[in-house]
Design brief:
By secondary structure, the chain is mainly α. It has 2 helices and no strands.
Length: 68
C-alpha cells in the first residue's frame, strides 16, 4: 500500500466535502443545523485570526507596553 502525499489527501478531503455539500439540499434539518453551527465556528476562528493580525500589525505604535 503506497502512502498518499499530503496534496492527495487534501484533494480527497475536498472531494468528500464537495459530495456532502451537493447532498445538503436534500439533507435532514438536524444535518443542516450541524452544518450551520460548524460553518459559524470556522468563520469565527478565521475572524479572530484576522482581528489578531490586524491588531498586531496596525497597533504596534500605539501600544503602551514595553518598547522593543
Amino acid at each position: 500500500m503506497r502512502r498518499m502525499e499530503s496534496g492527495d489527501m487534501a484533494l480527497g478531503m475536498l472531494d468528500k466535502l464537495w459530495v456532502k455539500l451537493q447532498g445538503l439540499s436534500s439533507a435532514e434539518p438536524i444535518e443542516l443545523g450541524a452544518f450551520v453551527i460548524l460553518l459559524a465556528f470556522i468563520l469565527l476562528i478565521v475572524l479572530m485570526m484576522v482581528l489578531t493580525c490586524v491588531t498586531c500589525c496596525c497597533c504596534k505604535s500605539t501600544s503602551k507596553g514595553s518598547k522593543r
